[in-house]
Amino acid sequence: MGAKFPMISLTRSHKRERYRNLGIKASGIGRFYDLVMALVQRDFKAHYRRSQVGPAWAVIQPLIYLGIFMLVRGVLDIPSDGQPYVLFAYVALVPWTFLTGAITRGGNCIYANSEIIKKIALPKEVFPVAAVVRSLIDFGIACILLALLLLWFRPEMTWHLLWLPVLLALLFCLALAATFGIAALATFNQDFNLAAPFVVQAGMLASPIMYPLSQVPEAWIPYYAINPAVGIIEGLRRVVVMGSPPEFLSLVLSVLVTGGLLLASWVLFRRTSQHYADIL
């Protein structure tokens, strides 16, 4: 049994006053939602406060990667399964930049809100969840350009689009799992935050973003698809651009691995969160 750490004790009236100062409700079933929305709104305004381009950065980042991919493709002759490469690559870059944005924000979400954590007794899960929801806004902005590309290239739309809510929910769960994990680990050791960009870059190469899943040797697929982003990204590409269902094996592995990661990272976060106020 580890030593017990002192917890911050606040009276009910004190809590209400603190919550009012944050612009949220002090009670009711919507308190968690109000906390998340207040944090998302604050972060969104602060992030683009002095930017001339503003939220357009949500589109610029995947476009920069797309430009690099097209240069590499000109050298390596990367196939695109019969689809225009611009659409083929961009539809995979949008969910990937969402994941990387959530991980980046999640690594700093506890330290960035240290004053709130030390002064207010509130569920710590709001900070990783707010990081994911904040990244979801950029995801939505990037999807505007994706919609324009779909209108321009007019790929075949089929009933397989019904898979889209399932794949997006799975993408959200994967982002939440990664954010819970990095938030818990990086709060105690900043090396995890410093290593995250390298892991993300390696993950991009180990996911079917620049190239199609069909380029991976069939014998490697069961091992390659252990990366939960594989089934999600390839599934989104198939249902949105190619008019076909997700690849079954990679999707099943994505569901299993994402579920396991979400449970494990949430348990880790819950067990470490009781000490955050003492180490910040």
Model description:
This protein has 280 residues and is mainly α. It contains twelve helices and no strands. It has helices at 12-21, 31-47, 57-76, 85-112, 114-119, 126-153, 164-188, 191-205, 221-224, 228-242, 248-273, 276-279. Helix 2 (31-47) packs across helix 6 and helix 10 packs across helix 11. The two termini are 22 Å apart. Mean pLDDT is 85; it is low at 1-17 and 21-28.
Strand content: under 5%
Mean pLDDT: 85
User: Regions with pLDDT < 50 over 5+ consecutive residues?
Assistant: 1-17, 21-28
Number of helices: 12
Largest sheet properties: none
Structural class based on helices, strands and sheet pairing:
mainly alpha
Distance between the termini: 22 Å
**What is the β-strand count?**
0
Shape: globular
